[in-house]
Design a protein that fits this description.
single chain; 316 residues
């Protein structure tokens, strides 16, 4: 198992859909656009800390309700032009007309960004509220996939939900909807974070039964903050395993102990997923590098062409 993008492949021309169909797992990092000057300094320190690891790509989120659109575009542009990293932009239909969406797609093409994660997005203000589409916009992620695909030479990803989509009436209905997004032109999928590998395998295998072989990348987040993961579970419906919660609460006043548990759990999850044939892992970094680098070091093979993890001071 070899991690890292071969130096013979021009990064600016790489398509995630193609990378995932090679006989090697892909490792990538998800980050969010900064909202303040301090957050911007932290983000770019993290990017420079992770860049030597040569991930296949880095993913820039859009923010709940599409509220970080401009910062997502700016951050994606800067990564594309100032680093050796391959950026993937998150892209949602929230509060956007089709004309605005086409304009954004054209902007990404102009700066050389060819990898986009197409998401319908959550309702502004209340992620669990009713979805109200823009009067001149789109209703579903499948429509956004089709729009991007017809607009140019893009590799398009979609979201996947190993524990089931919270708005889906049933597991089977959710799988069918996922497969429909893939058949609409999605080249790959990235999952919401989860902790039980059997959930991922169930989704992958049930999609395969419907004839869908679209690569599904598991999203993994090393836990570093108990309150944060509990809030995420509350907002998304993700299962926060009681046994893990008990372990973390037992050391709730020891930040390093929490990190150690988070790294251990994430490493075990990654190893299981990769052994079971997952096409790679996308780490949700929350714009910090320390825990992600530790997990990377645990899962990378000891080969000459796999980058060693550099010793870099942790981002505050």
């Amino acid at each position: 198992m070899t991690l890292g993008l071969p130096s013979t492949m021009p990064r600016e021309d790489a398509k995630i859909g193609d990378l995932l169909r090679r006989d090697k797992p892909c490792i990538s990092f998800e980050m969010f656009p900064p909202r303040t000057a301090k957050e911007e300094r932290i983000l770019w320190k993290t990017i420079r800390a992770l860049e030597p690891l040569a991930p296949e790509w880095v993913s820039i989120t859009y923010g709940a309700g599409g509220k970080t659109r401009e910062r997502t575009v700016e951050t994606t542009d800067r990564i594309a032009t100032e680093t050796t990293l391959l950026p993937m932009a998150h892209f949602t239909a929230v509060d956007h007309s089709v004309a605005e969406l086409r304009n954004l797609i054209g902007h990404f093409a102009d700066v050389g960004v060819r990898n986009i994660l197409a998401l319908r997005g959550d309702p502004p203000g209340d992620p669990q509220g009713d979805w109200v589409p823009h009067p001149d916009g789109l209703n579903y992620a499948i429509e956004l996939v089709e729009l991007i695909k017809e607009s140019g030479d893009f590799s398009v990803g979609v979201a996947a939900f190993p524990e089931g989509h919270p708005r889906s009436p049933s597991w089977n209905a959710g799988v069918r909807h996922f497969v429909d997004k893939c058949r609409a032109g999605a080249d790959f999928a990235v999952t919401q974070i989860f902790f039980d590998p059997t959930d991922y395998l169930r989704l992958r295998d049930d999609a395969a039964k419907l004839g869908c072989d679209t690569p599904i990348i598991p999203g993994v987040m090393p836990v570093t903050n108990i309150r944060q993961i509990e809030k995420f579970a509350e907002l998304t419906g993700m299962v926060f395993p009681p046994a893990l919660a008990d372990r973390l609460h037992a050391v709730k006043d020891d930040r390093e102990a929490i990190r150690d548990i988070g790294v251990e759990v994430a490493s075990d999850l990654c190893n299981t997923l990769l052994r079971e044939g997952a096409p790679g892992v996308q780490f949700v970094t929350l714009n910090h590098s320390r825990s992600t680098r530790r997990v990377w070091d645990r899962i990378r093979p000891l080969t000459d062409d796999s980058p060693m993890v550099p010793e870099i001071a942790e981002v505050p």
